[in-house]
Design brief:
Radius of gyration: 18 Å
Largest sheet: 8 strands, mixed
Number of strands: 15
Distance between the termini: 15 Å
CATH superfamily of the largest domain: Fructose-1,6-Bisphosphatase, subunit A, domain 1
Structural class: alpha+beta
Helix content: 25-40%
Shape: globular
CATH architecture of the largest domain: 2-Layer Sandwich
């Protein structure tokens, strides 16, 4: 798990193109959030299907994704789209990566830790990210080179440098064995590092960007869960592993996001635990 130092890469897409899409993304994510919140208020009546072990989808997920894709396609038909429910719908130089409701199980249980996530990727770089929790009315946002924000106020990762004062947010997926995850939890506790689990990877990464957590780790996660968060953490001064390298967009992979000071320490604890 290689974690690069914070760095600003050269712009690969004209700033005007990114800014135009960012303005629309904010409008669209708020509309999708309002629709999701309406479904949330009547969640007991929703139709639900099982996609896998502890993995469900509802009509709310599908209809919110359709709203997002339709709105973005109408304005930017040349862009590609990768969504949790629709998969890779189309390809383009710019690809929107969408999770209509991240934390669906929380959503259906009435637990207010879920969100809508919209990211934009080009040439394996996260160009912008919007993560919106309509329940708390919190909108995390970032555009490459422009800083990271929560409801318009600038945010930064925490300045925590001591593992014994840190709290990491963890995610878990049944796409990976249980035993390595359990070893990581034990290793973190042995190092006196506290941990939390929200049930929403997108919010876990956003909370890391805002300094609520000092890091986020999950052994396997999909691109739609973290594409937006990658941009937000980076612009908030944090570091991540190179999630978009290789087949990360198509197949997902491990995600690690952290404050720069903690990254080598927590990364070493996690890697040692995974090695057994």
């Amino acid at each position: 798990m290689t974690v690069p130092s914070p760095a600003q890469n050269e712009a690969i897409v004209p700033v005007a193109e990114i800014s135009e899409r960012a303005r629309l993304a904010e409008t669209v994510i708020r509309k999708a959030g309002a629709l999701a919140a309406d479904y949330y208020s009547r969640r007991a009546a929703l139709s639900i299907e099982n996609k896998g072990v502890q993995d469900v989808v509802s009509e709310a997920d599908r209809n919110c994704e359709e709203l997002i894709v339709a709105a973005l396609t109408r304005h930017f038909p040349e862009d590609g789209f990768l969504g949790e429910e629709g998969g890779l719908r189309s390809e383009g130089k710019l690809i929107w990566v969408v999770d209509p409701i991240d934390g669906t199980d929380n959503f259906l249980r009435g637990i207010p830790f879920w969100c809508v996530s919209i990211g934009l990727v080009a040439d394996r770089q996260a160009l912008l990210g919007y993560i919106y929790n309509p329940v708390t009315e919190e909108l995390f946002s970032a555009v490459k080179g422009g800083g990271a924000f929560l409801n318009g106020e600038a945010i930064r990762v925490s300045d925590t440098a001591d593992v014994e004062r840190a709290r990491i947010c963890l995610g878990f997926s049944y796409r990976r064995p249980v035993a390595p995850h359990a070893r990581v939890v034990k290793a973190l506790l042995d190092a006196h590092c506290e941990y939390s689990r929200l049930g929403s990877g997108a919010l876990g990464v956003a909370y890391t960007a805002a300094g609520r957590f000092d890091a986020y780790w999950e052994h396997h996660i999909n691109a739609w869960d973290v594409a937006a968060g990658l941009a937000i953490v980076s612009e908030a001064g944090g570091v991540t592993n190179d999630f978009l390298a290789g087949d990360g967009m198509q197949r997902g992979k491990e995600i690690f996001a952290s404050t720069p000071a903690l990254a080598p320490k927590l990364g070493a604890i996690i890697e040692t635990a995974l090695a057994g």
